[in-house]
Design goal:
five-stranded parallel β-sheet, Rossmann fold, alpha/beta, 289 residues
Length: 289
Amino acid sequence: MLRSAVPPTVKRVIHTGSRTFGRLTSEARVLPDFLIVGGQRCGTTSMYRALAAHPAVLKAVLHKGVHYFDINYHRGLSWYRGHFPLQRTARAVAAHTGVTPLTFESSPYYMYHPLAAGRIAADLPWVRLIVLVRDPVERAYSQHAHEVARGFETERDFGRALALEESRLAGEVERLQADPHHRSHSHQHHAYRQRGEYIRYLERLTQLFGRNRICVVDSDEFFTNPWKIYDEVLAFLGLPNLGYPVFKRHNARPRSPMPEALRAELTEYFEPYDYRLAEWWGREPSWRR
């Protein structure tokens, strides 16, 4: 007999109760040691699940992404801390594995939001960051399909959505910077070109955290050879390999081929950003080889 799904109203009650308990016990909880901060539609869910399967890694209790440093910062650090495991849980994991556990969450909007990086540096000065990147042309197309499917994009034609991007985003960064409570739907859901300008955000993160606390993963390489990339990420985090997880690709959406003229236009648009990324990274991204 199949178990019936938990009704959404019941889930909301459970989550609300858990968050309330989390806030009340926040001082007894751990804060993240590392974050997956982006980019969106670059394999962050697959990386999150691979790392969450490690016996010495503790994830946020209720959600993959807490979205504290982008859209929930006004709720305060106790609210954020309430999302993470108790210190006694971390001690139990350490005793069981013989490894000091690490805690994390994944919110891909962190890398793009204009205030998130500074907030992270202020509240988690020790944290390490994982960034995933992929062909920005494919990333943009994938994001558009994702936003349409979720109902956040009403313009179903990708070319038209690209044409609207500049006007939709006009002044939104300034509004976000001026009002910490401001939440921009278009900035979060309609930045198809801008989110693929990876080097802009990596340079900002480098200024705040230093190059050695940022691990960049080429998502195509992760899906082609996940065992190698997984080992490299564990080395960056200082964790031993206690067994490989089952690697799966999550949240992939079928879509029709992109028009070649539009692909060529976007490829040319991203060329200078990809060139700067290669200089910063010290290697050529897979989509430019």
